[in-house]
């Protein structure tokens, strides 16, 4: 347990104490900054009265980004597979 790090992150004016692996700190702090920036954008662009609504919109935005990356990766993998098969067919014809 001595290799754990205790940090505090502030999101939407609430402090969250965490005990983490030191390797996670940078990612968590960057994620916190992104969340805070997104909260600011939503509050500026929309008349949102409740922080819960803003946080739900942030969660949806981040989840959508993750899902889109997964979809894009799957598409790229399919495209690479098709090109490899075409290349393999060309090589087979010349051997």
TrEMBL record:
UniProt name for this protein = Cell division protein ZapA
One GO BP: cell division
Q: Which UniProt keywords apply?
A: Cell cycle, Cell division
Q: Highest taxon of the source?
A: Bacteria
The taxonomic lineage of its organism, from the top, reads:
Bacteria, Pseudomonadati, Bacteroidota, Flavobacteriia, Flavobacteriales
């Amino acid at each position: 347990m001595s290799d754990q790090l205790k940090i505090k992150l502030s999101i939407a004016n609430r402090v969250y104490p965490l005990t983490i692996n030191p390797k996670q700190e940078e990612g968590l702090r960057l994620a916190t900054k992104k969340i805070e920036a997104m909260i600011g954008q939503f509050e500026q662009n929309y008349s949102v009265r409740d922080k819960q609504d803003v946080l739900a919109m942030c969660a949806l935005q981040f989840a959508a980004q993750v899902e889109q990356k997964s979809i894009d990766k799957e598409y790229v993998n399919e495209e690479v597979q098709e090109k490899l098969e075409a290349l393999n067919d060309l090589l087979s014809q010349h051997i």
